[in-house]
Amino acid sequence: MKRLLTLVLAILMAMSVAISASAEARVTWGENPEPVTLKLFADCTWLPYDSFDGIIPQWIEEQTGIKLELTKATDSNQIVLMVAGGDIPYDLVMTDSSTMFREMSSSDMCYAFDELIAQYVPNWEVPEVTQNMNRYYSSDEHYYMLKNYFNTVDEIKAAGSISVNTNGFYFRRDIFDTLGIETVPTTLEGVMEMLAKVKEQYPDMTPMVFQHRNYNAFASFAGLDVDFPTDAEGNLVYVMSDPNFKEFYSAINQMYRAGYISKENFSFNSDEQMYQFMTDGTGFMFASFGLDESVYNAYVQSGNADASLQMLPLMDNYKRTFAVSGWAGCFIPKSCSNPEAAIKLIAFMKDGDNRIAAQAGVYGTDWTWDENGVFQALDRYNEAKAAGAIDQTYTGVGFLLSASDYISEGKVGYSTASDNVKAILDDACARSNFSNLVGLAVPESNSDEAIIKTNLDDLKTEYFPIVCMAESDEEFEAKFTEMMDEAEKIGLSAYNAWLSAKYVSLCEEFGGK
Question: pTM for this structure?
Answer without folding.
Answer: 0.81
